Amino acid sequence: MAIAEANSQQQEKASSEASAVEKKRWTLSDFDIGKPLGRGKFGHVYLAREKRSNHIVALKVLFKSQLQQSQVEHQLRREVEIQSHLRHPNILRLYGYFYDQKRVYLILEYAAKGELYKELQKCKYFSERRAATYVASLARALIYCHGKHVIHRDIKPENLLIGAQRHDASVDIWSLGVLCYEFLYGLPPFEAKEHSDTYRRIVQVDLKFPPKPIVSSAAKDLISQMLVKDSSERLPLHKLLEHPWIVQNADPSGIYRA
Ligand code: ADP
Q: Which candidate in 32, 100, 154, 168 is catalytic?
């Protein structure tokens, strides 16, 4: 026990000397913590200010015990590793991370306008201009990710965390098609009362466009080209950006202005 303590003290001394020369190691005392921004599966997200620079960030606090219980430590490591290397205007930055005995802290770019999902719920559905602007921005972010062999795999309005595994990047085209439909109709395309029915509708690609809200045939054409069973037949993302519905409706700045 005594030996172990001595060893760990030596290690701490060595590592603190190393960190003085290496890049900055963050600790909780570097931040003023503000209001809670939301609650995630494994902890909470707070508004925070980095004391020296006054830079506003979102600090995501994850409990190690919960990560261990759900056996997602490895997955988190990968997500952190990947997200910290992505640099794109449409992808939330991960500036860094640190941890203490009980928690892991992720220093994230602050998304001042919050979740898109809440906006969609508030408006019920988006205008074609708004939907096209978001779809084009997402397509650009995905083209960037796919260029780095990162596949999102989990695109939906309430979730834009990045995950990676080497399988077909066209899963993201399918998800973007589902999202585009949901933006325009306010409901996902294959919804049914029972899970099994939803599953059957997905497998059969039972795509139906309701009469209300009124959606242009150009938008329906684009969605139909993305929601295709054979992944090799789905409209590639660079072609999506050239589709008439995107060209005519998406704001070139990538920002939707009401
Ligand atoms: P998890 O994916 O672990 O369940 P999230 O990353 O979705 O958790 O975070 C939970 C909530 O915290 C989000 O729904 C959002 O409201 C808020 N939040 C997370 N990250 C940020 C951020 N960078 N800027 C602003 N709010 C955020």
A: 154
157 C-alpha vs ligand 1 centroid, how far in Å?
12
- 9 assigned to some structural domain: no
Per residue in 40-80, pLDDT (tens digit) is 888 899 999 999 999 999 999 999 999 999 999 998 998 89
Instruction: Give the HSE-up count for residue 193: Cα atoms under 13 Å, Cβ half-sphere.
Output: 0
pLDDT digits (tens, 9 = 90+) for 103-150: 999 999 998 888 888 889 999 999 999 999 999 999 999 999 999 888
Distance CA(223)–CA(214), nearest Å, equals 15
Annotation marks residue 154 as catalytic: yes
Residues 162 and 220 both lie in one domain: yes
Residues 96, 137, single domain; the answer is no
What is the best residue among 42, 45, 92 to mutate for testing ligand 1's pocket, by most ligand atoms within 8 Å of CB?
Answer: 45
Calculate how far, in angstroms, residue 258's C-alpha sits from the geometric centre of ligand 1.
24
Would you say residue 100 lies in a domain? yes
Print the domain residue range for 169: 116-249
Q: Does some domain include residue 255?
A: no
Going from the C-alpha of 21 to that of each of 16, 17, 200, the distances in angstroms are 9, 7, 58
